[in-house]
Amino acid sequence: MRALLAAIILCSALPSVAQIKPSAKAPPGTQVITSFDPNHAVVGWLEIFPFESKILHNTRMIRVLLPANYLSPHNAARTYPVLYMQDGQNLFDEATAAHGEWQMDDTIEHLVGGFKIPPMLVVGIDNAGEKRASEYLPFPDPQNMEDNPAGSEKSVEGKEYARFLLTEVVPFVEKHYRVSRGALNTGLGGSSYGADAALYTALAYPDIFGHLLLESPVLTIGGDQLIKDTEKAKLLPQKIYIGVGTSESLKGDPKQAAEMVEKVQDLQKILRKKGMTTSRLQVVIENGGEHNEAAWSRRLPDALVFLYGK
C-alpha cells in the first residue's frame, strides 16, 4: 500500500506531457516525447521537429534521442558522441514504426546503464515515405520491381541525399545540440536501402564519419557499385559493423537470400584486404535472420558495443 501511495505521489509531481519543454537550443516547433507519455513507447527523452531540405525540396521529421541527464545543469558544458540513423520513424517508437521498431531507445538505456557504451545522442532522420527508395539509392536497383523509380539512373537521388546529410542535417544538429565534433565522435547507420545510403555517404565523405552501422545492405545495386567504390576507397571509417541474415528474401526466394549474404562476404573480404582487422570490422551473419526491424533490433546491442564500447 505504501509503495502504491509513493508511486501516486511521484507521478503527480511529474509535469504533464503538455507541460514538458524541449532542451534550451531545440529548434522551433520541437515536440517532446518521454517515457511518461501513454500514447508512445519511448524510453527516455525524445525531441522531434520538422526539417525542411533545400537540396531535396521536401520536409521530414527529425528525432533526437537525448542522453540521460543531458538537461542537468551539471552537464551544461558536456558534449556527447552522435549517431545519425536513417528511417527515424522506425527507431524509437512502436506508434510511428511501419513494421516494428528497432528499440534503439531501450537498447541505449540498457547499454549506457550497464557502462558498456558512453552516453550518446541518436539522431533519427525520417524517410520520405513513397520516395524512400529513390532518395536512399545512389545507384539504381533493377531487381526492385515495386518501386519503379528505384530502377532508373535518372530517378535515384542518393548522391543528393548524401549532400543533404552532410551539409544540412549535420550542421543543424551541431548548432542545436551539444554533440562532440570529429569523425571519432560521429557515426552513421541504416538498414536495407538506408544502409546503402549510409555506406555511400561514408565513402563519399570519409573524413566525417568514424563509425558505420550497416544492417542488411543491398549491395547488388548499380552492378555492385558500392562494393567497387569500397575497393577504390583510400580512407575508411575507424569502425564498421555489418549485419545480415541467412533468410533475407523478401519473396521467399532462397537465391536472393544467399546473394545478400554472398555480397556482404565480398564486401568483408575487400575491407579485410584494406587493413580492417577484427578490432575495426565486425561482420555478423545471423542464421535464420530476416530482412526486418526485429532482426536489426536483435543485433543492435552487439553492434553498438562493438562500435562504441568502452
What is the β-strand count?
9
Helix content: 25-40%
Low-confidence stretches: 1-17
Report the CATH architecture. 3-Layer(aba) Sandwich
Strand residue content? 15-25%
Class per helix and strand makeup: alpha/beta
CATH topology: Rossmann fold
Nearest-angstrom radius of gyration? 20 Å
State the fourth-level CATH superfamily. Answer: Alpha/Beta hydrolase fold, catalytic domain
Largest sheet features: 9 strands, mixed
The coarse silhouette is globular
Helix and strand succession?
A: HEEEEHEHHEHEHEHEH
Overall mean pLDDT score?
91
Spatial strand arrangement across the major sheet: 1-2-3-5-4-6-7-8-9
Number of helices: 8
**How far apart are the termini?**
42 Å
Q: Name the CATH class.
A: Alpha Beta
Task: Provide a descriptive summary of the structure in words.
A 9-stranded mixed beta sheet has the order 1-2-3-5-4-6-7-8-9, sandwiched between helices. The chain contains 8 helices and 9 strands. With 310 residues, it is an alpha/beta fold. The radius of gyration is 20 Å and the shape is globular. Helix 2 runs parallel beside helix 8, helix 4 crosses helix 5 and helix 6 runs parallel beside helix 7. The N terminus is likely disordered. It starts with a helix and ends with a helix. It has a single domain, classed as Rossmann fold.
